[in-house]
Amino acid sequence: QVQLVESGGGLVQSGGSLRLSCAASGFTLDSAALGWFRQAPGKEREGIACISNNDGSTYYADFAKGRAHITRDNDEETVSLQMTSLTPEDTALYYCNAKWGSVNYWGQGTQVTVAS
Fold first, then answer.
1. 54, pLDDT greater than 80
2. I need a surface site. Which of 18, 31, 82, 91 has the fewest CB within 10 A?
3. CB-CB neighbours of 66 under 10 Å
4. Do the Cβ atoms of 95 and 45 come closer than 8 Å?
5. Around Cβ 39, how many Cβ atoms within 10 Å?
6. Cα dihedral angle (28, 25, 82, 116), rounded to 10 degrees?
7. pLDDT digits (tens, 9 = 90+) for 1-30
8. How many Å from the N-terminal Cα to the C-terminal Cα in the chain?
């Protein structure tokens, strides 16, 4: 069965940090572009960061620049996201994504709630 499984969400105090991980099963991630997205209640899903499959180059959304860091481990088939300086506005369901051309896989998401 092909799936992505996120972990590491939970309740975080404002000003704190998070570390999310996403593990793949049923397929390999080393040839995929990988990314993290989030969706807050009543809002559209938005991209946070992505990392390429060839040279490991990264891209960050403006709100994530300077406080997010995406990494991948092709041996462990995982992609991780660290974010610091969290505020209640970072409360959302966080998803990982694996993309090969027009093919996308999504995880089920992990909830992050930032308490004020």
1. yes
2. 31
3. 10
4. yes
5. 14
6. 150
7. 789 999 999 999 999 999 999 999 888 888
8. 39
Mean pLDDT, residues 35-58: 96
> 53: Cβ–Cβ under 8 A, 6 or more apart, which residues?
30, 31, 32, 33, 34
Per-residue model confidence (pLDDT) at position 1: 76
Question: In the prediction, which pLDDT does 35 show?
Answer: 97
Burial class (CB in 10 A: 0-12, 13-18, 19+), 27: middle
Amino acid at 79: V
pLDDT band per the 50, 70, 90 thresholds, residue 80: very high
Element (H or E) spanning 98, and its range?
strand 92-100
Token duo for residue 108: 């089920």
64: tokens are: 């994530």
CA gap 53, 116 in Å, rounded: 37
DSSP 26: S
The amino acid present at 59, given as its one-letter code, is Y
